[in-house]
């Protein structure tokens, strides 16, 4: 039986439902999973989380309590490497990662767990790096998007994290190739495993909305491209195309987008709905005519990779319009289950939306193909089985047999 600990920066989180699904499916497949979370979720919309799973998440103490507990540990409890590093590091940048590593590592040692996994090559990944340095416990990570496309500068760099990892998982062929090119010495330990989804949990879109409903979901940040979606809606209104648009999510660009909507006189066309529960999201998708996520590249190089919301829209049987960024073309196949337009081109985006919402029969056909693709390519059971193989430290031959490599 696979025994593994997970360390998250925050768990569970509405914006990272794929993490919750992953842990739940690993346990359904018989794994023994212990979950640690550095921070508690706050301000989250209510979700239908499994109370038994969420109820046993081990949340780390806050900064002061954490430091006090680690510094108060008996001299023979902490490994000499940890004692030395804590003393030498002091309160220099990112010092909390060392304290978190000492705290979690002691508990992993007590539980006899020899593998810890972190999502994103960020805070949690830097913490598991130190767990290995202090306790010799192997770690792996799942890398996603900005954490590898535009990593922040820390003493424990992305290169160091990958060099010490027993395995590096990432969620698209695009990002796997990116990491293998960037770190060729460690290419053999980079594996692609898609985020998993259970398509049957999403009711099929009804295509009965009048006027046609465009839905977009994501954080209100630059790389989601929602400003381009607002501009595309303005083009559609100027063409006298009947349309409504609902954007679900929250983020720092809320006021900017609201001003854009008002300046374009689209208050009766485009709604910013804020964050919604998974149940509300499922209903919005079922009521939609098309799903649009016009991903863009941020000034600092940040960009999306494999947005889970696109999988969810596909599972709901919706046609999808997006851009050729990251792993998006691994989900959206033009003419098969949607369309891809150049990033930042709101006119091309408007054209694509118009083509789909003015032909409901074509929209249904594209959506049906997307639903089938979601079930076949992104089915959670198959993808988590492959992930479990990696977490268990199986051989390359075993990974190839499970179609992971």
Integer-rounded radius of gyration: 22 Å
Instruction: Count the DSSP helices.
Output: 17
Q: How would you sum up the global shape?
A: elongated
Low-confidence stretches: 395-399
The biggest beta sheet reads: 7 strands, parallel
Fraction of helical residues = 40-55%
- C-alpha end-to-end distance: 23 Å
Q: Provide the β-strand percentage band.
A: 15-25%
Which structural class is indicated by helix and strand composition? alpha/beta
* Number of extended strands: 13
Average per-residue pLDDT, rounded, comes to 94
SSE succession: EHEHEHHHEHEHHEHEEHEHEHEHEEHHHH
- For the largest sheet, list the strands in their spatial order: 3-2-1-4-5-6-7
Concise structural overview:
With about 400 residues, the protein is of the alpha/beta class.
Question: What brief labels describe this structure?
Answer:
405 residues, alpha/beta, 7-stranded parallel β-sheet, 6-stranded parallel β-sheet, 17 helices, 43% helix, elongated
Can you describe what's shown?
By secondary structure, the protein is an alpha/beta fold. The protein is built from 17 helices and 13 strands. The protein has helices at residues 17-28, 51-55, 63-71, 80-89, 95-111, 123-135, 146-149, 158-164, 173-182, 226-238, 254-263, 278-287, 308-315, 346-357, 360-377, 380-391, 396-401, and strands spanning 3-10, 32-39, 58-59, 115-119, 138-143, 167-170, 190-192, 213-217, 244-248, 270-274, 290-292, 320-323, 338-341. The strands form two sheets. Strands 3-2-1-4-5-6-7 form a seven-stranded parallel beta sheet, sandwiched between helices. The protein has a six-stranded parallel beta sheet with strand order 10-9-8-11-12-13, with helices on both faces.
């Amino acid at each position: 039986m696979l025994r593994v600990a997970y360390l998250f920066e925050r768990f569970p989180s509405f914006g990272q439902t794929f993490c919750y699904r992953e842990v739940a499916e690993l346990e359904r497949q018989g794994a023994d999973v212990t979950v640690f979370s550095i921070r508690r979720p706050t301000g989250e919309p209510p979700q239908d989380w499994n109370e038994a799973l969420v109820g046993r998440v081990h949340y780390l103490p806050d900064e002061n309590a954490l430091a006090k507990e680690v510094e108060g540990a008996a001299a023979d409890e902490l490994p000499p490497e940890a004692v030395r590093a804590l003393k030498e590091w002091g309160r220099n940048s990112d010092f909390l990662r060392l304290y978190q590593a000492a705290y979690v590592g002691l508990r992993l040692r007590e539980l006899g767990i020899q593998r810890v996994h972190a999502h994103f090559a960020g805070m949690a990944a830097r913490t598991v790096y130190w767990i290995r340095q202090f306790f010799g416990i192997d770690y792996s990570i799942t890398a996603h998007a900005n954490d590898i496309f535009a990593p922040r500068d820390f003493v424990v760099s992305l290169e160091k994290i990958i060099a010490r990892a027993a395995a590096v998982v990432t969620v698209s062929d695009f990002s796997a190739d990116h990491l293998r090119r960037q770190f060729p010495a460690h290419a053999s330990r980079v594996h692609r495993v898609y985020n998993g989804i259970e398509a049957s949990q999403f009711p099929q879109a009804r295509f009965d909305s009048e006027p046609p409903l465009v839905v977009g979901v994501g954080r209100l940040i630059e790389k989601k491209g929602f400003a381009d979606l607002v501009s595309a809606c303005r083009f559609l209104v100027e063409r006298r195309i009947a349309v409504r648009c609902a954007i679900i999510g929250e983020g720092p660009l809320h006021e900017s987008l609201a001003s854009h909507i008002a300046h374009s006189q689209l208050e009766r066309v485009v709604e910013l709905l804020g964050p919604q529960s998974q149940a509300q999201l499922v209903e919005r998708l079922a009521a939609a005519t098309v799903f649009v996520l016009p991903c863009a590249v941020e000034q600092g190089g940040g960009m999306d990779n494999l947005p889970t919301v696109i999988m969810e829209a596909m599972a709901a049987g919706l046609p999808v319009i997006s851009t050729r960024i990251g792993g998006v073309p691994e989900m959206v196949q033009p003419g098969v289950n949607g369309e891809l337009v150049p990033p930042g081109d709101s006119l091309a985006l408007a054209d694509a939306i118009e083509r789909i919402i003015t032909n409901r029969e074509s929209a249904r056909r594209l959506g049906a193909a997307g639903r089938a693709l979601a079930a076949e390519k992104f089915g959670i059971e198959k993808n988590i089985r492959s992930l479990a193989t990696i977490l268990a430290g199986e051989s390359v031959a075993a990974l190839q047999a499970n179609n992971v490599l």
